[in-house]
Specification:
Blueprint lengths: L13 E3 L4 E2 L7 E10 L5 E8 L5 E5 L4 E8 L5 E3 L7 H7 L6 E2 L5 E2 L3 E4 L2 E4 L8 E2 L12 E4 L4 E7 L10 E9 L4 E10 L3 E2 L3 E2 L17 E4 L3 E3 L12 E2 L11 E2 L18 E5 L8 E7 L5 E7 L3 E5 L8 E2 L5 E2 L6 E5 L14 E2 L5 E11 L1
Antiparallel strand pairs: 1-3, 2-3, 3-4, 4-5, 5-6, 6-7, 8-18, 9-12, 10-11, 13-14, 14-15, 15-16, 16-31, 17-30, 19-22, 19-24, 20-21, 20-23, 23-26, 24-25, 25-31, 26-29, 27-28
């Protein structure tokens, strides 16, 4: 791993003029740039990469956590604005990130009591969410510095999670590829192999606000979730094993509905997380790419669709944001100032054999994809 000693310029981007054009013809191209984004506390160098498509949509992704730092998308008048929460430098990500924009793993979401049994062996994981394991533990994939390579089409991020890292068995070799298309899609492809039986559930943890990051709450965003069922949770936000219909409850987003319409209803499932923080069971059969969700922001006209191979999606309404974090452009991230749509297998699946399996064995390939597509209306 490369090291870099920092002086007073720790927060300064030193742009390296590495630019590539990929695509067909002048109207279809991706511009690629690489820059210095500083270093971690231990001196490990961190780079940031910028992808820009033909319409001006721009994604900035850094090697610390394979993190989407910013995502600029046009509104109905063509005005670009950053629609994901984030921080100004690596040091802030180390100190106060709430998983902003990162890849979470080896297991995204929660594993109850920080334990699971695989092939007769019980594994004890790092506990970092009460008595439970969340998003890979104390030092998950979000805190690793990934290797990066641009291949002319996508930005490939690579990381090897060592055997027993955070309690997980097996050396897990992971590649995550970010591709920005001229259809205004940010596509994320995940690939992993292991040398021992293990569990794997990777996702991206971007916090979205289609009105612009840090500008206002999420309550007027109109959300659709392509899911007739969800997985209820207990008081610790651990799935109970039940799959429950959404019909007749505040969990029903089968038709576009304002996030704030029923978020504070007196419904027992809204109490543990102070609002929405649940997994929805997507309406799908097989592993084809499926529309999982859509979100419309009426003041800007921005419209986001989420497509995935995964069987579930976690909708988190940012009920735990509290104004204690100041992000990019000195904007304060207040209560419910964003939302997350994390494509995934169901939470606590290693302890729920009735849920789709998350077990990965030697000789198998973990492959999944998610697309965030942007337009206006």
């Amino acid at each position: 791993m490369k090291k870099r000693t920092l002086g007073s310029s720790v927060f300064v981007l030193l742009v390296l003029s590495i630019v590539f054009w990929a695509g067909c013809g002048d109207s279809e191209m991706t511009i690629f740039e690489k820059a210095d984004f500083g270093a971690t506390k231990d001196g490990t160098a961190v780079d940031i990469y910028t992808l820009t498509n033909a319409s001006g949509m721009e994604a900035k992704i850094m090697t610390y956590g394979a993190t989407v730092v910013s995502l600029k998308v046009g509104d109905r008048d063509g005005k670009l604005d950053d629609v994901v929460l984030g921080l100004d430098n690596v040091g802030e990500y180390e100190e106060k990130s709430r998983y902003f924009g990162c890849i979470v793993g080896r297991y995204g979401n929660r594993i109850g009591k920080g334990k699971f049994t695989l092939d007769g062996t019980e594994y004890t994981l790092a506990v970092n969410n009460g008595e439970n394991h969340l998003h890979g533990g104390l030092k998950g994939f979000d805190k690793a510095v990934w290797e990066a390579e641009y291949d002319g089409v996508g930005l490939k991020m690579h990381y090897v999670s060592k055997d027993m890292e955070e309690g997980y068995p097996g050396n897990l070799d992971v590649t995550v590829t970010y591709t920005l298309t001229d259809d205004n899609e940010l596509r994320i492809d995940y690939f992993a192999t292991t040398d021992k039986p293990t569990v794997c559930n990777l996702t991206n943890h971007s916090y979205f606000n289609l009105a612009g990051q840090g500008l206002r709450d999420n309550l007027d965003h109109e959300l659709m979730l392509n899911a007739d069922n969800f997985t209820p949770v207990d008081s610790d936000l651990i799935t109970t094993g039940e799959i429950r219909p959404v019909k007749g409850t505040p969990m029903d987003f089968t038709k576009p509905t304002a996030i704030g319409l029923r978020i504070d209803d007196d419904y027992e499932q809204l109490k543990p997380g102070g609002g929405y923080d649940h997994n929805w069971v997507l309406n799908k059969d097989g592993e084809d790419m499926t529309l999982a969700a859509s979100v419309y922001e009426p003041t800007t006209g921005r419209f986001m669709e989420v497509f995935t191979i995964e069987p579930g999606i976690q909708f988190y309404a940012c009920n735990f944001l509290d104004g204690s974090v100041t992000g990019k452009e000195s904007r304060v991230y207040k209560y419910r100032y964003a939302f997350c749509l994390e494509t995934q297998h169901y939470p606590n699946s290693p302890n729920r054999p009735e849920f789709p399996s998350v077990v990965l064995r030697p000789g198998q390939e973990y492959k999944t994809s998610t697309i965030y597509k942007f337009s206006t209306k």
